[in-house]
Task: structure prediction
Amino acid sequence: MIGEAGNGSVQINTGPDSGLDADTLDGAQGAFYLNAGNMNAGFLKKERLNGTYDIIISGQSGSTLRLRSSTNSPTGNPTPDEFSTGIIADTKNNTADGLFDGGTRHVVMTIRNGGIDFDATFGGVKQLAFTDANADVGAGMWLRGSFNSPANSFGNWHEIWHSETMEH
Result:
């Protein structure tokens, strides 16, 4: 609207019902944009993350306090070269990797100290398994590894002995 002062002045209506509100953007208050729950693109800096998240991380995490057992591939039996550096746990059917001691399933913790692919210079890939077969001690405990170079296959499963094992 042309201003009352004349000489080309302009007057902007900024009052109530003018459609101009410096406190909002696209009709949302500033607090809306501070809430990470309203993000639809981009990433948060790691310094902004805090709490517990039920997420899947591809690759490696920088620090993990709790390791969950996966049941995504109960019939799979990856070769040592398919594991990345770190620790994972998977629940397996006994038919998947040949660990039979009377039960049907077991959890396998796979540990790789370092290296990639067929590199065994960090000691290869090790697996520790706990079976569901022995009710007296709760589980059998087994170990196998790829202590060979190249790290392309696992050796046989070997039971870890303890006092309860010897009595049976």
In short: The first strand starts at residue 24 and ends at 25. The mean pLDDT is 77. The beta strands are 24-25, 28-29, 69-70, 86-93, 105-112, 125-131, 141-145, 158-159.
